[in-house]
Fold this protein.
Amino acid sequence: EVQLVESGGGLVQPGGSLRLSCAASGFTFDDYSMNWVRQVPGKGLEWVSGISWNGGSTYYAESMKGRFTISRDNAKNTLYLQMNSLKSEDTAVYYCAWGATRGQGTQVTVSS
């Protein structure tokens, strides 16, 4: 059974940082690229960032470039998202995604 378990969300002030983690199991993690997506209640999914199977290539939505860093540890079957300079508009539920499969998500709230 495929499982993606996100963690690391929380409440942070504007300008602050958070590091999200996603523990993956049930598939050969290091064979696949992975993504982070997010969703604001009432709105559609927004792609945030992606990373190739070996971490050699990374991709970001325009509004995240320079603020977010995606990475992975294939030995630990874990995906990460380092988020810096957070803004109120980054408030959302963040999911890691393997193809169309997502975890339960972790809430990130950016507010003073």
In short: Residues 35 and 100 are 10 Å apart (CA to CA). The mean pLDDT is 97. The longest strand covers residues 18-25.
